[in-house]
Write a structure and sequence with these properties.
The complex is a heterotrimer. Chain A is mostly helical. Chain A has helices at residues 12-19, 38-41, 44-48, 53-61, 81-85, 92-105, 110-114, 117-126, 136-142, 146-159, 170-182, 185-199. Helix content of chain A is 55%, strand content 0%. In chain B, helix 4 crosses helix 5 and helix 13 (221-237) crosses helix 14 (248-265). The chains are: A mainly alpha, B alpha/beta, C alpha/beta.
Chain lengths: 200, 313, 766
Amino acid sequence: MTSKQNLDDSPIDFAERIIGDVKNSKDEGVLKCVQCGMCTSTCPAARHSDYNPREIIERVLEGDTSILEDDLIWNCFYCYTCHSVCPVGNSVCEVNQILKQIAISNEIGYDKLYEYMGFADSYFTAAIGAIPEIFFEDIGRDVPGWWDFRNNLVDIREELELDPPLMPPKDVIDEVSLILTITGFKEKIEKIRASQEVEK
Amino acid sequence: MKSLPDKNILLFRSCLVSVEYPGVESSTKFVFDKLGIDYAISEKQTCCTGLGHYSDVFNQIDTSAIGARNFKIAKNLNRPNLVMMCATCYAINKKSVKLLNKKDDLRDHINQLFDENGLSHLKYEKDDLNPTENIFHVVDILYGKKDEIKKHIKYDLSEYKIATHHGCHYCKVHYEDTIAGFRDPNILDELVEACGCESIGWYDHKRATCGTGFRQRYSNPDLSFTATADKMNALGDEDVEILIHLCPNCHIQFDRYQHLISEREGRTFKAIHLNIAQFIALAMGGDFDKVIGVKAHTVPIDSVIKDLKEVDK
Amino acid sequence: MRDELKVGVFLCECGGNISDVIDLDEVRESLDVEFVGQFENLCSLNGRKIIRDAIFDYDLDRVVVAACSPISHEKTFQDYVKPLNPYLMDMANIREQCSWVHSDSKKATHKAITLINASIEKLKQSDAVDPIYCQTPDEVAVIGGGIAGMNAALSLAKQGIKVTIIEQSPSIGGHMAKIGKVFSPVKIAEECGMCLLNPILNELVWNENIEVITNAKVIEAERRAGTYNLIVEKSPRYVDTERCIACGKCKEVCEVEVPDDWNDGLSTRKAIYRPFGQSYPESYVIDMDNCSKCSECVKVCNMRAIKLKGRKEKMLLQVGSIIVATGHKLFDMSKRPEYGYYRYDDVITQSELGRITGVNGPTKGKLLKANGEIPKRIVMIQCVGSRDEKPDGHKYCSKICCTVALKNANIIKHKYPETDVVICYTDVRTPGMFEKYYKHTQENEVRFIRGRPGEVVKKGDNFIVRTEDTLKGEFIEIEADMVVLSTAMEPSDGTREIAEILNIGTTEDGFIKESHPKIKPVTTDVQGIFVCGTAQDPKDITESIMQATASASKVSEYNHGGVEIEPFIAEIDKEKCILCGDCISRCKYKSMSIQDDEVYIDPMSCNGCGKCLVGCRQKAIHVNGNIDEKIMATIKGVLSKKQPDQRMILVFLDNIGYTAADNIGVNRLSYPESIHIIKVISVNRVRPNHIKYALENGADGVFIGEFPGDLMYDEVERKVERIKETLGELNENPERLMFSKVYIPYFSGLARKLTDFDKKIEELDL
């Protein structure tokens, strides 16, 4: 099949947008990719799925924005191995995170985030990043003795004489709740939740 | 090598340590006390957002704003050296300091939000903290006291087959600051050595991820556990009895799911899983229940360590 | 009257290098001079015509060339302004010190205007003076006895020039001696390396103009009146080369066995040994670090050539010029542990493979694994340590590794067609005729997989090479029983050391830098010092030889043409001089002496620092060329362009510091626009009144840099301290004045210091 590049196409804009993202720590790294594949050769997701970090950069450089909707980008482990070995100083791992944030800002991938809303909730209620309760059933099934352990947690901590307690004071929770409201986080979470609950 | 502090430390509490392996915190305190390290814990400090961040729920602005608040707490306590028990907290905080120093737009934006909402006391000034000189993992601090550790060893653990698993977010995110290698990470091996033991050193997939992959463990368990199995098989081939960790995330993946992966792979994995602070605390004579916190472990510690032999003095 | 001089300013676009950043239209409009010209390449012959025509048409008295650094093109433009006296031309460096270090176009344009104005004001104080010509000694030192050094020496010797080769190992020959076979793109075949090296070695040995000193290193160097005085430290060999007949009886009785570095440690040798079969001097040598001093060798030596006692000797070597041919070393594989080099015997480097396949190697040319079997599949991994921006890696391509891999693959295929050879590559770089050799290799059934492997692990008896086949987009694990790593070439320790000793510029990668690869090839930043071979950058044998010959030719030019010296040196008024001799004792450069009842000043060693004239009670000395006035005029020229709220920092550097500053631009690093660099012939010529004037009239800070090897360094440092104290007494903040060391190789350090100083001045908030 032939793919055509028209005179007015500017495929590099996509890469430039990623370079301009606040999260990018590798300057022009994306543009320097020579497709050597070292990222893929050390990538756990490439080893066990169709995820291919080299191809992520290939598609970014082609200006292929359909990648934002590609489920495969959600397979990255964020293990940063590619980031630590890339010979041209690029980081697919960071690019991947930026792609997802762009996707989310385009209201793509809300379904992927929905299960993780617990992280947001626990922050507003306890300023802690607890594993979302939605997964407790799976954990209870997969991990022998986990429920017992959870029920004994307070006693275990007491025996270890751990202080301060798990839950921070109320003024702390209020302060971080305010921060997460003014950054726009709260609004985003509510939007994601609303959209998913409507679908359900 | 960078200079490693032993005072003015804020020991940064970790959510996962608190609710999954509280023994890591008590062991760290136990070891720090033995080594005469000056540290404190603050109840005002909150979670780094790491788990939510790497599940893509928090974006960089959310995370760095929360970071700025925690950094200010450290500054106000005159404890500018943040020391993390969790690799994710380490990577997240180091990145936030880097970005807040380097990216004027991000810093100005966050400071403006603080100003407009009565939070001016949290504002971050450029270079308030230095990513290399203020942000550490517990292993860095222990590394700075390697020789001191040797003096406090009570029990001889050298008969066990020991391997190390280095958390990705300690080694590979900010690799320029990683001590003792990131392509072949060795800081844990050197700390094990300081306890009078020898690790097996390199094994296949030594530098690879534990397989947690944040969302992968819950949303993509097949992928996650296959990656873990790579590592468990390699460790199984080497007959490893103790795997040393530095991150509660990895710790969960190996300790909580060893049974499940054994079933999936059709072979028995026998290793127990200890954080390096727990391992050193154990070697220094820390109590199983009161310091090491073995009750929080899924693979029973006494399945491998049955009795303790004192070192020959 | 000086204000009425007609000045012409010529702006060079430098093919966009300047005009892309600096708005030359704005510069032109800002200038109030007799004539302004602009051209895309002023250094071209067309540029010469523009300059000459304008000088005649507008009757110009003074010419400013606003272009690159005077370090690169001052000589060119001094020639272009003829018949105007060369010192009535001044260059405003708006490339290396403006467009290459600043990206903000508006600020860079204003700085260019400032620099040009400084040149105009300086020129108004300039007078016509004539350059001085000097002759240097013909003798040459070649440092390094590898293929490059040998060829350079031979070429010079054949032109009748006396050459001394200084080699740190016990034999000359270098890497080529151990390389086994070399490739010949013309024949599409591999040839015996030693057979090509040996004739050169023999010719060199028999040439009467060449002296070879082995086991020796240059440890100190200084230059006096065009002569380099090199202190060479020679380590003892413990075997008298005059007596030794290389019979080898000694090695038979020696019981010490150590890894043989000539075989990359793949075999062993004795503590008394001959480096290799054709080594020169043709004599044994003792490795005293490993010798047990049992004396058995002494007993069996019929020639009485062996003495177990010996000490290092220092010798003085005086030469007129130096060729640096100190070569390269190979990438340290402990920096890429994932490839398992230090874990597994059968993971080797291309260099080791060269030894294994060499007939004079550890296996007599048989390709064998550590267990003695012939490998079934060999995987070669390219770009190990090259094209790699990660810590300890090299950003550059090592240039020869593709062809080396092809060569070794072909050698294997000729002898062991059953062995599968796979080359994992990112790009196969075989320019020119080497492409034919690449095709030849493919015809030999060598296989190529496009991908950069992530790791090599051992599974059972074999290795697994993990890579992506990027053409298929597939992650693969290649089973292999031997892995060969194509390691990067990097500057040898000797190259790094000699750069420091001679204070010659290096590239950011640590190789010796050519002044300019096109207009001053093989020439270093220091007059009379040349470079060739892999000390300069990665290259193959053929290129090393060509560059060696080029460096010999440059030495020859230098010997014949003499040296042109800037005339800004001290001069004695014989009428006033009473021969008190004070100046002779004051001169740090020992350039003054009494000859024939007159004070004589050696023009090659005088650097115009002015120390003598300050102390002369008779006021019988002056330095040619209105130096003080020119410095003051330059300062005024810079400060008169200061804008409200603009921070202005004046930086005074002599030739060395200025070269380092240029290197910041050449390497595209940056520093703040507030930095204005003023080139002076000696930092000592910057007087307290210059500094005081600058700080009182708009300069926010003054930075003085000096090379610690300069004989005036201590003096200048003390002087700056005194001025700081005076500033303190006058209630001025002494922090506004800064003194700092500068070195040509550490240009990045200078950039950082300038940036830090700017920040400090900003914080002082004047």
